[in-house]
Amino acid sequence: MTYGPMLADAVGLLSSGAPEGGLEGFRAAYPHTRTRLVAQREEFDGSLHHALLIKDGDGATISLSWCADRALPWPLRGVHRAGEHLLLRVNGIETPVARAIACLDFIWDESALADRLIADSLVREELAEAREPLSDAALQQAMDAFRRARGLLTGAATRAWMDRNRISHRELEELVAVEAAVAALRSRVTAGRVEDWFAEHGGEFDVVRVARVVFADVPAVPDAAAFLQMVERAFADGSARPGEVFATLRRGDLDAETAERIFGAPPGTVAGPFPVEGGHLLVKVLAVEPAVLDGTVRDLVERQIFGEWIEERRHAAKIEWFWGVAERTSGR
Description:
Oligomer: single chain
Structural class: alpha+beta
Largest sheet: 4 strands, antiparallel
CATH architecture of the domain at 207-289: Roll
Strand content: 15-25%
Number of helices: 12
Helix content: 40-55%
Distance between the termini: 41 Å
CATH topology of the domain at 207-289: Chitinase A, domain 3
CATH class of the domain at 207-289: Alpha Beta
Radius of gyration: 27 Å
Shape: elongated
């Protein structure tokens, strides 16, 4: 059997009692395979069971499990307690997982949360097979960035945030480590692809700086010189919607027709009105700037490439929602 030595080592790994510690050594010994260690905590008795998934170059997967003497019998694995189905309890009021997920039904046309849940699962699947170890220095750097991003600039602020979110120091480190691992995965996925993607699609990141206002009714288009005075009067008499007047827009954030009209307008001229949610948008174009592959745009391009990578994996994934009817969830 060509797999004999590898399977023998895999059994030794699973029966060692601490397979997580020997996983990197196993991967180093068999670099041409993709290996994933799956851990399952049994709700019935709290025992921890491990299985090893080994994917060879031909795409086939070997699933290997090992059961210790007097361990939980196989027919009882996967038994669920009733409490497993609870997501939240507030003042004694329980929210089952099914009800929480069903709440998405009210916002299904804007299913950002559902999409993020699926993307998170796909990313965790990849990290489980090919996650690189994080050094102490890298973890500290990621922790500093995590705190800065949330305005946790002092120890007291960090502790207050942890208390508010019921997160221990160990859980915080795990959260940051996962965030750093995702960033590293994104770098691996996008390596060597940013420049070519930008050369083909960079126009999506062209910038236009504008003064804008949304009117309840279709407005008359004023002279450019009188635009800001018109905005002031409109806010004063209530005919304009509250909102930010000066804004920076990117071409890719606009629909094709609106982008063509706004980016095609010479600076200093007025474009619109455009139908938008809540009224009609009128824009004075202040400046138009072609995209440059600086640090900000590079980060946006990497996120775009990473999003496309996730979408490709999603199309090939088997997705099961454990709620509702199959007709409602099979397309997710």
